[in-house]
Amino acid sequence: MGKRRAGRELLRSLSKKQKKHLREFGEEHPFYDKVSWERGNITEQLKVRSEDSDKSSAESDSETEVEQVSGYHKLLATLKTSPESESEEEEDESESDEAEESEAEMDSEGSQETAEAEGGEEDKNDVPEDEEGTTDTAEQILSQEQADGTDTSCDPHHGVIEEFTDVKHESEFSLETNFMEEESGDCNADKRDSNPFKQHMDKELEDKEIEKMSALPKTSSQSQWPRLGQLIFSSTLEKHKTLKADKEVDVKQLHLHKPLEATWPKVNKQFLSSVDKPSNSPFTPLQRELFCIMNSYRDLFYPERNALTNGEEIRHAYCLHALNHVLKANAQVLSNNAKRRDRKPGTDTDDYRDQGLTRPKVLMVVPFRECALRVVHTFISLLEVNDKKKIDVSNKKRFKGEFGSDPEEKPPNLKRPEDYEAIFAGNIDDHFRIGVAILQKSMRLYAPFYSSDIIIASPLGIRTVIGAEGEKKRDFDFLSSVEILIIDQADIYLMQNWEHVLHLMKHINLLPLDSHGVDFSRVRMLNLNNWSKYYRQTLLFSALQDPQINSVFNKHCFNYAGQVAVRNVPLTGSISHIVVQLPHVFRRLEAESVTSVIDARFQFFIDKVLPEYRDAIMSHTLIYIPSYFDYVRLRNYFKKEDLNFTHICEYTKKAAVCRARRFFLKGEKQFLLFTERFHFYKRYTIKGIRNLIFYELPTYSHFYSEICNMLKATDNGVDATWTCTVLYSKYDAQKLAAVVGIDRTAQMLQSKKSVHLFVTGEN
């Protein structure tokens, strides 16, 4: 009894976020680590979770496989992937921000935390520690709460112990056993020859065309559109007719599924009020041009998504396209079901090839649960014709509980930039996946993947299902027949783990290892020929141009219809937003190739740049490092050279962060190594900077002006001594243009000398 009572006290002391993490992973978050777990306890916990997951239905196997014991899960259970689960700590951290306003407060804060962490090596704070087995008792108590009748399965404060899938409504949402309702109005949809869906999916490619797409380079052409700007159309097959932007769009000409023609103007009305020149069009100028490309089933890369301005506009546009595609595909299947039922014996069944090897048609990759919540709400709004005709949404309450957020969890005194607030609004958990099945007037949330039409997932959520090579339990067959892939906010995945996106692209549209009960007489020949990737449409949205994102679009998209990429060049750059008078020195380094630029930059820094800052007079030097691997390399070098430095990265604990900021502000540490991911997730103002070194140009161009404007935070009359040095190479052309503008970039790339710029604060 004493142990249970102590365990209950421990549970009450946990915050909401800690309880949620405890349920999902079987342990407390590494951020709150005190001492190490014993290996046996970890194995036992994972074993219990594995046994629980085996009790689920066979139809949900693909989704529960993630709960099995694997090397990847052990790594996931012990590493702190991102500061997303630290929002409970943000309130305390914001207090440290406020404490910096006065030197005395910072002194008291720093001395307290220094005493707390004294006696250990500073860099140990960058490595997440393991945890003691005391969580076992807390886990039992959480289980006891459920046994006592407390429903915590859909409580956002608790999270979920095992992944839930809806197996009750399987027959209601089965495509094989249902038929088209006459009143749905789309029974004759398959007869419209001008339907873009039919045109794209029914085109029969020849072997020669497939060989041509695999071997020959793409030909491209340019076009200028009123809203999107400069577009690059590319294709391997014969030159397609170049799209032209329609000035006015009639909803009836877009061949939308009938209910969407009525609901879209009402759902999109909120964005039309902000249009400068109102018209009768149900689209904003941006949506009109984007949807024109989407509806042609070409691949699209749009690198100008902005969470503050056009993010929701874009989300509504691609939700309309995805839902329109699913409704048409399902209507075709249901209509053919009726024809097969009424056909005469001996009729050729090849006329009814209308589906893929697996049911999921659309995969939507979004970064946070809040994004998935908004997508599903948009779907529901588009399916409800009017307030009287509400659609039936199964498991809606559970969905809101698990994907919604508690307003009380957000500290009221946080002060962050507007774009930060927009990106990290709501539930920012980045490990999730959910299947959605849509059948006529009903929607089924938490559908098993093989019974879903749409899968919404984060890169990490889909990665843990796909698994790694060599694992016994892994599954990616459900990705075999994906017809539309939507990757939204791709730039955020650069801050999470880009390897998860690459892993997904390597496993999509592969032949399945199992039949999964498919009727091969209904499967399209393109799927049987393993040509699915040549029909898949990829929609890629990002806030910036980046070589890694460009690589995915160029090397992993094979759509026979071609690709469209928006390629506008920045005219001014973020340097114009700097409000302090600061001299900028851009120092060019030479590298023979993209692969050698990493070593070349390191050597250039330690040989040419660092010696100029070793003198004590060059104190208060912040070194901004976008790559974590470069950060580790520099940290090790600074330790080897016994330099007076401190460091902050995304894995640094709160106490060590405050201590490092205090040491840097007081000048007790000459250098501060500072990672981009930490700045992305925290956006702290670092005070005391007098010298800035950008080891590499920032991924986000506005981070350049944000960091430079931090010098304004310490106003002690030493403006004349401020310096800013930037390292760049010819391979940084896109990042450089985003910072200084296209004209200056052209001049800087032609010249091999250092470039000096002076910003007066009025540029």
UniProtKB/TrEMBL annotation:
Cellular component aspect of the GO annotation: small-subunit processome
Stretches with biased composition (Acidic residues): 85-134
BP terms from Gene Ontology: maturation of SSU-rRNA from tricistronic rRNA transcript (SSU-rRNA, 5.8S rRNA, LSU-rRNA)
Sequence ranges of Polar residues compositional bias: 135-153
GO molecular function terms noted in the UniProt entry: rRNA binding; U3 snoRNA binding
The UTP25 C-terminal domain, residue ranges: 574-758
Compositionally biased spans, kind Basic and acidic residues: 23-37, 46-58, 344-354
Protein name, as recorded: U3 small nucleolar RNA-associated protein 25 homolog
Lineage per the UniProt record: Eukaryota, Metazoa, Chordata, Craniata, Vertebrata
